[in-house]
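Quick one, T. Sequence first:
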Amino acid sequence: MKIIKNIDILRNTINEYGENKAIGFVPTMGFLHEGHLSLIEKASSENDITVVSIFVNPTQFGPGEDFETYPRDLDRDARLAEGAGADILFFPDAREIYPIGASTFVEVEGAITKKLCGSSRPAHFKGVTTVVNTLFNIVSPHKAYFGQKDAQQLAVIKKMVRDLHMQVTIVACPIVRETDGLALSSRNVGLNPEERKQALILSQALNRARNLWKTGETDVKILKAVISDGINTMPLADIDYVDILDFNTLEAIKKIEAPALAAVAVRFGDTRLIDNIILE
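Structure tokens:
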């Protein structure tokens, strides 16, 4: 596996593989876990070249968020990425992605970016779509792989690709969880033992709502209350949002009559976790 920091070198390296090679791309912010590795493994199995990027993108962090403390460990990530099948690890610095004087942004407008994480992090998705668009322009992948844990991000990126007629297929991959149900996240390392224990309520509360839905309950207000009440049993849990939306459009619904996304964001101490399930 080659580790590359420069855009021109990356493009030349990809070209050296020859024409008509399928390029798979896994964009990450690093501190890789089994969820990331599952994306890399899938990309490796479906493409001739697998490119993984590690870039902690400053434009998607707001004031007071964890940009400075976000976990970073390139040596560890390089070993894991190579073991999962990556051919190239792209590790640029901020100046490489955002040259001096850069002032161009890509923004998806509308309700899809205003709800859930967008309501409490108003500039977040503008940063996400800008950096993903930039990385797509650099790598020129045929397929790009994203985890379903960041369900809103996935929906926003799909819309950007569709609206801008980008020639890349977005591949959504299932959430990977610990054996006790906690969704894997690079931010989990920020939990102390008691916070880690209480964070299990996220998947438990979502599953309670799913079980109730399976018995025939379709009222979103009732199902949201089940989730919120469950999370609030944990004294360290500070709810950012609990919502159930149309899975395809992220529009508000009152009854579940089509596939729906039940999503939560909760803080435990300084660590903000997200999780979701699809009701379909």
